[in-house]
Amino acid sequence: MKKHTKASSQKNKPSIYSAKKLKKLLKNTLILLAFLTVPTTWLIVNNYTAQAESDLSIIGSGTPVAVQVHDQSCPLCQRLKANAEEALGQMETPPAWRIADINTSGGAEFAAQHAVGHVTILLFDTQGNHVETIEGVTNTDSLRDSFEKLVASRR
Q1: Which terminus of the chain faces fewer neighbouring Cβ atoms within 10 Å, N or C?
Q2: DSSP letter for each residue of 115-141
């Protein structure tokens, strides 16, 4: 006659405790991944947008371009950028929008080449000719008017 011990009968039984633990671990892992995915995606998109906005090689390539000489830490630059982006958003066919960050070597070189400081927007026609300089915080309507004249000069 075979004796069954308590230990041997528990070996054959599936452990409910470990299944619950595994399920909880999986759930927590999925939640963590969801929380990490959102900021990671935002960082990737933000980095891509910043790189595209800082590409000044578009100047003179057949597209009118507005370039803001910008300092990220400057509140006036932030206000001018917000006004410009609002003006561009109101246009059916806006010019290309670029940022020359004076805290980068390329942006500082661009500003020096055009002899301007931050809180400035430079407008370039389709051939890359500098056609207007907008200095200081400027309201949305004035910026939109300047941008529309720039785009109209293309035609």
Answers
A1: N
A2: T--SSEEEEE-TT--EEEEEES---HH
Q: Give the integer Cα–Cα distance in Å for 31 and 130.
A: 52
* Residue that is written with structure tokens 């070597």 in the block: 105
CB 148 within 8 A of CB 91: yes
Residue 66: name the closest of 91, 38, 37, 33 by CA: 91
**Residue 153's closest CA among 86, 62, 59?**
62
Model confidence at 17: pLDDT above 70:
no
Return d(Cα 71, Cα 77) in angstroms, integer. Answer: 6
The model's pLDDT over 33-54, given as tens digits with 9 standing for 90+, comes to 777 776 766 555 555 555 557 7
Cα 45 to Cα 36: distance, rounded to the nearest angstrom = 14
DSSP symbols for 85-115 = HHHHHT-SSPPEEEEEETTSHHHHHHHHHTT
- Average pLDDT, rounded, for the chain: 84
**Number of alpha carbons in the 13 Å side-chain half-sphere of residue 144:** 13
